[in-house]
Amino acid sequence: MWIYFYLAHLLGDFIFHSDRPVQERHDQPLSDLGKHLAVHTILMVVAASIVTLETFPSFSLSGLLMLAQAIVLISVCHFIIDYGKIKLDMVFNKTISQAFLFIMDQMLHLLVILFTFYAIFEPATFLDMFGKTFEEKVAATACIFILATYGSGYFLEILLRKIAPNYELQEGIYRLSDEKIEVKTKHENNGKQEVEITTIKTEQFFHDSPAKIGQLIGMLERTLIVIFMMMDMPQGLAFLAALKTLTRFKQFEHKQFAEYYLIGTLSSAIIGILLGIIATNIW
């Protein structure tokens, strides 16, 4: 039953979240966390209701009290973890640190949910917590797709933030500038050498895509990867990679964009494949 609470957590963290800028959330952490926690609590109450309906009429009053205890304990731990992350974000602002904090934050939330249910409901073994009813499989699959879309999107945004190409945006058009140096050496008859250094600067202009369209493409890409893995169709990955590459073919002439695209695509594919493997084992 813990999987419903984890699904509630993912919905609260990635779907029903605040779009306010990071700096504003850091300026008013307690106010923002209070609203965030209220959303999580409501979602956990919904999750508890699903558990109650699923086990009705065998579910007792003591079971309801245990679910209430779980909601309170998870909420308190959630507040502590998120408040600590906000404070650490202000200290460690490097890309690798931000990415590590994001992963640790999500892992701690998952561990809190697991150990809360283990402590309160006291299963015979830890593995007994991992039920395999049809409803739980559906909830687990929903978790995978949220992680593959929104969760991975946030992580990749953090990871690629500092290596994004130097775009100069202006009225829906952006410019990619690149510069390279060519050195030519000429040998004259008198034995002297003449070195010619040429600096070549190229500028390419592209119409800017709609806001967050790249993030949406990445979400669709990882969703398809997970689906291909679940359907045992790995050949679909090659088709997906070719299709995505064709849409950006001309921009590959810009070295910085090519490196950025390669890192982003490989990272996205790795995440999608790993989540696809997990999803395959659920069913």
Describe it.
The chain contains 9 helices and 3 strands. Helix 1 runs antiparallel to helix 5, helix 3 runs antiparallel to helix 4 and helix 4 packs antiparallel against helix 5. Strand 2 and strand 3 form a beta hairpin. With 283 residues, it is mainly alpha-helical. A 3-stranded antiparallel beta sheet has the order 1-2-3, with helices on one face. It has 3 domains: 130 residues, no CATH class; 40 residues, no CATH class; 70 residues. Helices cover 67% and strands 12% of the residues.
Rg on CA atoms, Å: 25 Å
* Category from helices, strands and their pairing: mainly alpha
Terminal CA distance: 17 Å
Strand content: 5-15%
InterPro entries: Phage_phiKZ_Orf197
Protein name: DUF3307 domain-containing protein
Keywords: Membrane, Transmembrane, Transmembrane helix
Transmembrane segments: 59-80, 100-119, 139-160, 261-282
In short:
The chain crosses the membrane at residues 59-80, 100-119, 139-160, 261-282. Helix content is 67%, strand content 12%. The protein has 283 residues and is mostly helical.
